[in-house]
Amino acid sequence: MSSEEFEKLHEIYKSLFEELKLLPEKALRSQGEERKRLVRTFDERKGEAEEVLQGMNEELRSAPSAFRNMMSTKLRMYNRDLGKLQRDMKTSDSGSSAQAGVGSHPGIYSSENQQSTQTQSQRALLLQVTDSLTNASQSIERTLRIAAETDQVGTDIIEELGGQREQLDRARNKLVNTGENLSKSRKILRALSRRLMTNKLLLGVIIIMELAILAAAVYLKFFR
Question: b/e per residue, 149-159, with b = 16+ CB within 10 A?
Fold first, then answer.
C-alpha cells in the first residue's frame, strides 16, 4: 500500500465532504434553476466522493491488518455520512418543492437523480477499466521481474560453468605436465637400468679377471 496515495485520497474526500455539507441547506433556500444546479452539483460531488472512498478501500487491501481495521471503520463512517447527506438533500428538495407551490415540478430531483445514477454507473465502469489496466500493468511488471530474475540465474549459471571450465583446463594441463614428467622419469629409469646392467657386466669381468689372476698365482706358487 502507498500511504502517500491513501493520504492524498483522504484529503480529497474531506474537501469534497466539506463542500457537500453546505449544499442541502443552500438547496432548501433556492428554487428553480438554481436549485436544479445545486442538486446536480450535489450528485456530481457525491459520485466523486464515492469514487474516492472506493480508491481508499482499494489502497487498504494491501495495508497492515491493524491500520486496515482502523481505517475500514472510518470508511464505513464516511459512507454513512454520505448517506445522511443524501437524505438531507432529499428532505431539502421536498421542502423546496412545497414552498414553490403549484409552479414547482415534483419530479425534478428524480430526473436529476437518474442522471446522477447514470453518471455514477459510467464512473464505476471507468474505475473497473482502470482497475483492469492496473492489474494488467502489475502482471506485466511481475512477468518482467521474473524474466529479469531468470536472466540473472542464467548469467550466474554461465559464469559458474565458465569457472568449472577453467578448473577443468587447469586439471588437464596438470595431467599433461604429469604425463610429461612420467615420460621423463621412464627415460631416466631406462638409462639407470642400462647403466646398472653395464656396471654388472663390468663387475663380472673384473671378478673373472681377479679369479684368473688368483688361479695363476696359486698355480705358479704350488705347482712350479
Answer: eeeeeeeeeee
This prediction has a pTM of 0.39
Non-local (6+) Cβ contacts of 204 within 8 A are none
Residue 72 burial (C-beta neighbours within 10 Å; 0-12, 13-18, 19+): middle
The model's pLDDT over 168-182, given as tens digits with 9 standing for 90+, comes to 888 888 888 888 888
Given a contact cutoff of 8 angstroms between Cβ atoms, the answer to whether 93 and 37 are in contact is no
pLDDT digit string (tens) for 19-50? 888 888 888 888 888 888 888 898 998 899 88
